[in-house]
Amino acid sequence: MGEQSRQCSVWLGSETGILKGVSLSRKQAFNFCNTSHLSRDQEVRALCWGDPAESELLVGSVDGTVKTFSVEKGAFTEARRCGEPSEGCFTGLAALNGSSLITCVECGTVRVWKEDSAEPATQLDAGKNVCRMRQSPLHQHKVATGGKENGLKIWDLERPEKPLFTAKNLRDDWLDLRRPHWVRDMAFIPDSDKVVTCTGYHQVHVFDPSTPQRRPVLEAEYGEYPLTTLSLPASGTSVVVGNTHGQIAVLDLRKGLVRGCLKGLAGGVRSLQCHSSQPLLASCGLDRFLRIHSLEDRKLQHKVYLKSRLNCLLLASRDLQEGTGAAEGVSQEVKEEGEEEDEVWDTMEQVEERPKRKTEEEEETQKKSEKKKKKGD
């Protein structure tokens, strides 16, 4: 399995608890899991790299365990308990200084775990109903949190007593009514202190902690449906957002205008990630496909059917296009344990619907109309 895992350039976590790897250059997809213990409790909710060399993957499951997957060996090497199912699912997972681990759960508890320690070294409360936690790519000890009726907060894990920045509630609407707040995802804009968020009320906000203003410095809207996830291209001047109806759009962060839309999805978008050096976007969601789009011409480059509803994805930093063919080059179907019902539906005999038989009244009216036509002639 080590040879197969080293070929993979895209990693995905599924609802069935299977870690999936896709090699775009070889047009192959692989499953990595322990089939004897496969259950819904192992559903993968978070993925991140365990080290800068990208030799290890950290996989967060619904049951509160974080497993370490070795890309070199192609197998899981370690599992540690980092939460309880009663606290909710993982909403964020990140590595800190190579050996430590940052976790965040839905109840709002953010923990820092040292290596070979069963108790967290640092713990803070980010508030209830946290939907997402993100780590700053430049300052690893800084994280951002947000959720339903829980505004954006930026924390310094070295000083966890209070947040560095707390977003202020949005201004009341034109009827002087309070506007609800629901942060679904966020990202740190490179080469600045700004943070961009997307909400469950189809809004995109940009906050600037370096200024006295705690409300958004930019507000934009896209579509009519809740936004679920976002990702920043390498340029940092735009943001890609996805919603619950499979719509993906590229928005300009300077003016808040929509630059274009990416088509092809047929279900809610669960995860988006832009490549760190190439103009490529990977997306996955409820329609069970991994898609790779080009951000230059917004065309579909690759499409992979993986037979499970997908929760999260992670891209390798190396070149994804190396040795690849034409668009939609990957069409590998992967057989999974516990999904034999798909094969049953495929083998069932197709029943063709017969044309509906006309009633006696319809036949009589048709005969009368034909007689009238003949008399008229």
UniProtKB/TrEMBL annotation:
Q: Where is this region: Disordered?
A: 325-377
Residue ranges annotated as compositionally biased, kind Acidic residues, are 336-350
Among Gene3D superfamilies, the record links this protein to: YVTN repeat-like/Quinoprotein amine dehydrogenase (2.130.10.10)
In Pfam terms, one family for this protein is: WD40
Coiled coil (UniProt feature): none
* One of the record's GO cellular component terms: nucleolus
Any single GO BP term: RNA metabolic process
Provide ranges: composition bias, Basic and acidic residues: 351-368
Q: Which UniProt keywords apply?
A: Methylation, Nucleus, Phosphoprotein, Repeat, WD repeat
Q: Does the keyword Ribonucleoprotein apply?
A: no
**Compartment(s) of residence:** Nucleus, Nucleolus
Alphabetized SUPFAM superfamilies for the sequence: WD40 repeat-like (SSF50978)
Q: Does the keyword Repeat apply?
A: yes
Subunit comment: Isoform 1 interacts (through WDR repeats) with NVL; the interaction is independent of RNA or pre-60S ribosome particles. Isoform 2 does not interact with NVL. Interacts with MTREX; the interaction dissociation in a late stage of rRNA synthesis is required for appropriate maturation of pre-60S particles and depends on the ATPase activity of NVL.
**What is the official name of this protein in its record?**
WD repeat-containing protein 74
